[in-house]
Inverse folding.
């Protein structure tokens, strides 16, 4: 089935002339760099292609010259004959509102995806959509360029947490080996993605880390960030996702709960876990979703009231095999 869907997707791309690529709200390194790689591939096929994301790019990706190709806003459907959606569980996840009537390809490595497109390739065994798009090169009969290799390596590097997360597999390393052979430079990519923090961000990290608390068992770490902190340091909320990696590195911690105030009375809650602790189950309980080790949801209310309720619920669900009713 996997090879068959890849051939069908390749055929659809080859039969199309004017293509748009988009990805999920709050784009990440995987969706950003996979979009750029796919656009390069489609360029070589002689097609017209545009990358359009609804949400702005997070730091540091917005600082890199190659990402200037990505337009922020809504896709103009006029003249389009195909839209490719990356990592979107449904069309609404892209934030695009004028594409429902257009032919669509859905490429995703999250299991929580509803097959909504004309062609749906969903592969939860892939560490990143960067892996999946790499596997389109053969059916599209495109020879990889060093620039494509750099983009796809960056995508996989980002979504595996620089090869630290549990989604890292032998397939990830095999594909990255091929990408290095094709011209990707691991050292330069790692330095670019990991070592571009601003002094303001590091100061804000210190502020947020000072809120750290542990549950009595010591296996859940909790962090809180307020809008006033973001405003003081001039940092966007999405640029702070990596702080959970620091908290998750604490000995004995298996789950990190990160409360981020979006506006008065509304919090975005990020869950990051390791080992057997399941972030996705807890997030789904509160109407969100994600991976086993990276998920999130949004809640409204008073933090003092939400705090104990959410921690208690996460404690009960983090080792469950299925959601409790």
């Amino acid at each position: 089935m996997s090879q068959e869907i890849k051939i069908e997707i390749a055929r659809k791309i080859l039969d199309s002339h004017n293509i748009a690529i988009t990805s999920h709200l709050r784009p990440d390194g995987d969706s950003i760099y996979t979009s750029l790689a796919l656009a390069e591939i489609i360029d070589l096929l002689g097609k017209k292609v545009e990358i359009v994301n609804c949400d702005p790019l997070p730091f540091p990706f917005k600082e890199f010259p190659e990402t200037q190709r990505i337009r922020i806003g809504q896709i103009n459907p006029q003249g389009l004959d195909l839209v490719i959606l990356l990592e979107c569980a449904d069309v609404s996840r892209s934030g695009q509102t004028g594409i429902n009537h257009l032919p669509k390809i859905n490429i995703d490595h999250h299991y929580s995806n509803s097959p909504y497109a004309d062609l749906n390739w969903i592969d939860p065994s892939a560490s990143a959509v960067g892996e999946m798009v790499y596997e389109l090169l053969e059916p599209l009969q495109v020879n990889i360029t060093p620039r494509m290799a750099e983009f796809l390596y960056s995508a996989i590097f980002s979504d595996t947490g620089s090869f630290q997360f549990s989604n890292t597999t032998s397939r990830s390393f095999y594909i990255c080996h091929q990408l290095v052979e094709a011209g990707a430079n691991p050292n330069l990519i790692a330095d670019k993605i990991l070592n571009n923090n601003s002094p303001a961000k590091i100061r804000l990290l210190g502020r947020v880390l000072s809120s750290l608390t542990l549950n009595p068992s010591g296996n859940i770490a909790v962090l809180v960030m307020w809008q006033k902190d973001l405003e003081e340091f001039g940092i966007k909320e999405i640029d702070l996702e990596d702080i959970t990696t620091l908290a998750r590195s604490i000995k004995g911690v298996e789950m990190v709960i990160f409360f981020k105030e979006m506006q008065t009375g509304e919090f975005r809650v990020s869950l990051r876990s390791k080992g057997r602790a399941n972030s996705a189950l807890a997030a789904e309980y509160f109407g969100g979703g994600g991976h086993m080790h990276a998920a999130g949801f949004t809640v409204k209310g008073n933090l003092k009231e939400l705090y104990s309720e959410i921690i208690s619920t996460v404690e009960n669900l983090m080792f469950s095999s299925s959601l409790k009713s």
